[in-house]
Structures are given as C-alpha cells and as structure tokens.
C-alpha cells in the first residue's frame, strides 16, 4: 500500500458546504449540499453530486475556501464538467459534476494545502472494499448549517461519522454503507457530495483510501449510497486528457 504523508484529520477538511448566490445585489444565498476539493496534474477541482447543482448556473456557485464561518472568500470556477446519463435512462453512476477552479484569480489559494485531496497520490493506491470495512464520511447537512439574512452571516456545521461497508448497490458502480451515528443529526439532507474514505488503524496511525462520494442517505435507514472512486478517477482522467 502507498503511504500518504498527510494526516487523515487534514484530509477530511476537503469537504465543504456547497452554496449558491441567488441575488446580485443583496445577501441572498441558499445551500445545495456538500462538495470536496481535489487536485490532479496541477489542476484543482471541486467535486459534487450532479443533482446538487440542478437548475443552477456556473455563476451562482460559491465554493468557499475558508473552513471557518462567515468567510466570503470563494474559489472562482473556470469550467463545469457534467456527468452524462445514457440516452434511455438516468443512472446513479453519472450523478457527478466537476468544477474546475481558476487558481490564477485567487492569489491566496495554495494548491499545496493539505486539505485538498491529492489524486496524483491517491490514484496510485489499490482500492479494495470488503464487507464490514470501516468507512468515514464528512459532509455539511442542512440541519447543522444556517444562513442568517439579518446578520448577513453564513454558518456551516460539519458532520463526520464512520460506518461499515455493506456491499454493492443495485446500480452499476455504486455501493452502500451503514452509518454508525446517523441519529446525531436530525436529517441527512445536504450530505450528497460528501467524500467517502476507507480507514485502517495500524502502525500507530491511520491509513486511508478515497473510495467514493455520497449520492444520497437517510437518517431513518442509517444507510448511504455512494459512487465508486473508479468513476471519479476516470472522470478526472478524461478531463485532464482533454485539457
């Protein structure tokens, strides 16, 4: 296995709240779920589930850089790349969208930040999922976040929990995990787009693998369906080859 030099706690910070600016003049924002930052071959991307961006324009998307509350500094998007469904149906494995970041327009943005997932490194790992493997997700459920229009303040709550791998879902290239602590949140809305990691404690530390992205989940079922990392990686490869 390839060892990563980045602490797992830093890696989890790649997950951020996906926001939209709905009005050009006043403080008008709304939430759309979770996205995560990653980098590959010198380019930086925000990745999320396609359904989180439904009926939204690129100019409305706000990918805030700071992990703190109330920071209005966001990453400008150069291009949006949308997963394409087959012509005859809508499928889970196409529910993905890549937002290419224009890093040249934000001087304070450092692509070497430890909280940006390093796909150059992670793609070299041999990813295998077995029943009862321990998985971890981190996202931004709506119930933990607030947009205060009176104080013009956006507060984001982050939710991280572990779970166990159950197996493949009915749809191609998707999987199911059982959440350990879903009762800690009132509702799972907003977790779509959250990164999923396989973790293993050994050698006095934590080894981790990026294994996919949450597509949907519910508190009642304690289950989350997630997209296989192979789809995320292949989409990233296509983008960089075309570019």
Write the topology of this structure.
Elements: H1 8-11, E1 15-21, E2 29-40, E3 43-48, E4 61-64, E5 74-75, E6 77-82, E7 97-101, E8 117-118, H2 119-122, E9 134-139, E10 146-148, E11 153-155, E12 159-168, E13 174-179, E14 195-202, E15 205-218, E16 223-228, H3 229-242
Parallel strand pairs: 2-8
Antiparallel strand pairs: 1-2, 1-4, 2-3, 3-7, 4-5, 6-7, 9-12, 9-14, 10-11, 12-13, 13-16, 14-15, 15-16
Compact description:
By secondary structure, the chain is mainly beta. The chain is built from 3 helices and 16 strands.
Task: Write up what this structure looks like.
The protein has 243 residues and is mainly beta. The chain has one domain: Thrombin, subunit H. It has 3 helices and 16 strands. Strands 1, 2, 3, 4, 5, 6, 7 and 8 form an 8-stranded mixed beta sheet that branches. The protein has a 6-stranded antiparallel beta barrel with strand order 9-12-13-16-15-14. It has a two-stranded antiparallel ribbon with strand order 10-11. Strand 14 and strand 15 form a beta hairpin. About 2% of the residues have low confidence.
Give the overall shape, derived from the CA principal axes: globular
Structure class: mainly beta
The helix/strand series, from N terminus to C terminus, equals HEEEEEEEEHEEEEEEEEH
- Counted up, domains total 1
Helix content: under 10%
- Global Rg: 17 Å
| End-to-end distance | 30 Å
Per CATH, the class reads: Mainly Beta
């Amino acid at each position: 296995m390839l060892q990563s030099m980045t602490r797992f706690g830093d890696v989890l910070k790649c997950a951020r709240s996906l926001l939209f600016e709905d009005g050009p003049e006043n403080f008008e924002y709304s939430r759309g779920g979770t996205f995560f930052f990653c980098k590959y071959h010198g380019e930086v991307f925000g990745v999320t589930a396609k359904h989180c961006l439904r009926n939204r324009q690129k100019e409305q998307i706000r990918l805030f850089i700071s992990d703190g509350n109330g920071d209005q500094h966001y990453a400008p998007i150069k291009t949006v790349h949308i997963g394409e469904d087959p012509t005859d149906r809508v499928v889970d494995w196409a529910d993905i969208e890549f937002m290419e970041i224009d890093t040249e327009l934000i001087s304070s943005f450092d692509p070497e930040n430890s909280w940006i997932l390093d796909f150059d490194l992670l793609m070299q790992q041999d990813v295998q999922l077995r029943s009862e493997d321990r998985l971890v997700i981190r996202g931004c459920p709506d119930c933990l976040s607030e947009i205060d229009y009176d104080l013009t303040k956006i507060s984001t709550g982050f939710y991280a929990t572990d779970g166990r791998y159950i197996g493949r879902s009915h749809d191609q290239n998707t999987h199911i995990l059982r959440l350990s602590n879903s009762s800690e949140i009132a509702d799972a809305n907003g977790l779509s787009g959250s990164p999923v990691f396989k973790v293993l404690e050994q050698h006095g530390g934590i080894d981790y693998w990026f294994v996919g992205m949450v597509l949907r989940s519910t508190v009642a079922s304690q289950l989350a369906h997630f997209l296989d990392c192979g789809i995320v990686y292949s989409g990233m490869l296509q983008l960089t080859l075309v570019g």
